Structure to design on (187 residues):
């Protein structure tokens, strides 16, 4: 099946599967060995990283334009669904979640968020599950933030609000009693 050639422009936001959303700074020609190659220079500001991807290998590397607003809405709707079956041992599920996160596909990211999100305020997560959840949420939020022109933290909160993820309980919060304290008076 023939694939369409991806077109990229300077200043465009793109998604590199293992790094998330970056901005295409320029396409430059570099000589490597005896060959001249056109390289895409992509800045990942959040990771403080610049990546160079050969233009002719961009599609093979998984580089893609941002998802459309409609695609993002579909992914978020998918993340609202019921969690998938958890019949595999954790190590295998974790590896599958890691693969889904590194795919860069919004639907696969939504699957990880859906399966790992807390359903009630008292739900607990293992450290590794929480790390996977936060990475998947961040990758979704990166695209959401660019699409809706907001910062990353706002986008993460907005996605969690849409999904109905309960806010974490502040274990350090102190409840104030309305009752007055009795003072013992010494005679």
């Amino acid at each position: 099946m023939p694939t369409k050639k991806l077109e990229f422009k300077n200043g465009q936001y793109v998604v590199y599967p293992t790094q998330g959303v970056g901005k295409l700074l320029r396409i430059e020609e570099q000589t490597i060995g005896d060959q001249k190659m056109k390289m895409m220079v992509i800045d990942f500001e959040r990771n403080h990283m610049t990546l160079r991807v050969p233009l002719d290998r961009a599609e093979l590397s998984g580089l893609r334009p941002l998802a459309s607003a409609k695609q993002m809405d579909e992914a978020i709707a998918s993340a609202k669904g019921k969690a998938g079956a958890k019949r595999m041992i954790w190590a295998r599920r974790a590896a599958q979640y890691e693969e889904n996160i590194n795919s860069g596909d919004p639907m696969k990211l939504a699957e990880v968020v859906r399966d790992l999100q807390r359903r009630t305020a008292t739900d607990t997560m293992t450290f590794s599950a929480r790390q996977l959840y936060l990475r998947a949420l961040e990758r979704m939020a990166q695209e959401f933030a660019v699409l809706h022109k907001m910062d990353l933290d706002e986008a993460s909160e907005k996605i969690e609000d849409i999904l109905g993820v309960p806010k974490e309980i502040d274990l350090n919060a102190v409840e104030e009693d309305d009752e007055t304290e009795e003072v013992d008076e010494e005679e």
User: Anything to note?
Assistant: The CA atoms of residues 128 and 180 lie 44 Å apart. The longest strand covers residues 20-32.
